[in-house]
Amino acid sequence: MATPTTTRQRRRGHDPESVLSIAVGVFNERGYDGTSMEDLARALGVTKSAIYYHVPGKEQLLGRALDRALDGLSEMVADERAASGPAIERLEWVVRQSVRILVDRLPYVTLLLRVRGNSRTEQVALERRREFDAFISHLVKEAAAEGSIRPDVDPALVTRLLFGTVNSIADWYQPSRGASSDDVADALLKMAFTGLRV
Amino acid sequence: MATPTTTRQRRRGHDPESVLSIAVGVFNERGYDGTSMEDLARALGVTKSAIYYHVPGKEQLLGRALDRALDGLSEMVADERAASGPAIERLEWVVRQSVRILVDRLPYVTLLLRVRGNSRTEQVALERRREFDAFISHLVKEAAAEGSIRPDVDPALVTRLLFGTVNSIADWYQPSRGASSDDVADALLKMAFTGLRV
DNA sequence: TTGTCAACTGACCGAATGTTCGGTAAACAC
DNA sequence: GTGTTTACCGAACATTCGGTCAGTTGACAA
User: Fold this and answer.
1) At which residues is the DNA-binding region annotated (chains A, B) (predicted)?
2) Is strand C in 7 Å reach of the CB of B77?
């Protein structure tokens, strides 16, 4: 009766989760298309065929990774704090949350940001990402319409620059350097909202 | 005596230059590793083997493209305007020039920004790019030391955010949308230097 | 001790990859 | 017209690719 189907002590080895997290690491190092199943096998310490015991294939591995990134963004968009209040405050909240998601799910979001649309899996992910971008774009326009953003720059340009900055974090952020998600978000918001110059 | 070795009217076809520019376009659409020589051949309207009449191979095509981007950045760093005057003004000039180079050589710089280091060619390019990054990093530190940048953000973080923003332009800029290099640089400098909020 | 089963190996498959090569048609030089 | 050069094609090359499958191993239950 005790622990009938529970996960007891496994005799060391992989599971779908460990395969995914290691695979995503390699995808980010070499690029998805630049990564062979042989590369993954080497990183996992097993042979190629062992991978297929845990996951259906390379593209499904990518799909699961992209979903992790996109699910985070979807949850944020659905949050009440993204829907009510002054647009500029919602924008600030969304920027801060975006940075948090990017940092928390760094490898998954990094992968998402590099997707080009070379397969159905990638195209589906790009489509979900475009929905997020449209949400942001709308939010910036609202903030501009409410007079909270300087009127001498096109809101569309503001959107791209602001979230270009957020997304660029994926290119350099390393948790080992000590800066937390909030540290980065604070610096980003200071720069973008009130400016760097003294 | 007239036009002995000059380029006269070619009977339409490709040359190394046209192959390069079309190839770089495809590389940016699908990613370098995601692009096959067959893909390039299709885009060029010839067979795979015809490509090898004009260029030595796929990797050399990449190398030439990356050099175009890096040469632009090297020229800028060597310019006198990057060396003398208040650091904050040099920084502003370098940001503006970086945007100009990125826009002028958009496909080449875009390619450079996506290089992961999967081959010797890519590693050499990454090394040159790191030199540029070090130059920028030093410049920001100077501006901070001169008291021109708000002291409550780490200069290293400022460097990454500022040039993360510049580099992110490659992800969305389309000349057909009408914005010039200076338009983008103006908006970027307004945001980063004096802030978006009214 | 035997049987079960999760986790894996090694040999292999067909397709796709980057590249080479022998040949060739059209444009040009003379 | 003849010879040369330019720009290409089609077939083949070795290699690598993602993926399959029949078997093996070792921990564990009975």
Assistant:
1) 36-55
2) no
Domain B63-194 CATH superfamily: Tetracycline Repressor, domain 2 (1.10.357.10)
| Burial (0-12, 13-18, 19+ Cβ within 10 Å), A7 | exposed
Q: Give B11-29 pLDDT, tens digit per residue.
A: 578 999 999 999 999 999 9
The top-level CATH class assigned to A13-55 is: mainly alpha
B183 phi-psi bin (left φ>0, alpha ψ -120 to 50, beta other)? alpha
Q: Which CATH class is domain A62-194?
A: mainly alpha
Q: Is B126 on the interface with A (CB under 8 A)?
A: no
Chain A residues with CB inside 8 Å of B30's CB?
Answer: 116, 118
Domain with CATH 1.10.10.60 in chain B: 13-55
Average pLDDT score over residue span A41-58: 97
Q: What is the per-residue pLDDT for A198?
A: 86
Q: Within a 10 A sphere around the Cβ of A177, how many other Cβ atoms?
A: 10
D11 C1' closest Cα residue? B49
How far apart (Å, rounded) are the C-alpha atoms in residues B14 and B53?
10
Question: Which residue among A31, A114, A157 sits closest to B187, beta carbon to beta carbon?
Answer: A157
Question: Which residues are in reach of strand D, CB within 7 A?
Answer: A 9, 11, 35-38, 48-49, 52, 56-59; B 10-11, 13-15, 46-50, 53-54
Strand-pair partners of B149: A197
pLDDT tens for B109-146 read 999 999 999 999 999 999 999 999 999 999 999 999 99
Say whether residue A150 is in contact with chain B using an 8 A CB cutoff. yes
Distance from residue B39 (CA) to nucleotide C27 (C1'), in Å? 29
Q: Where in chain B is the domain with CATH 1.10.357.10?
A: 63-194
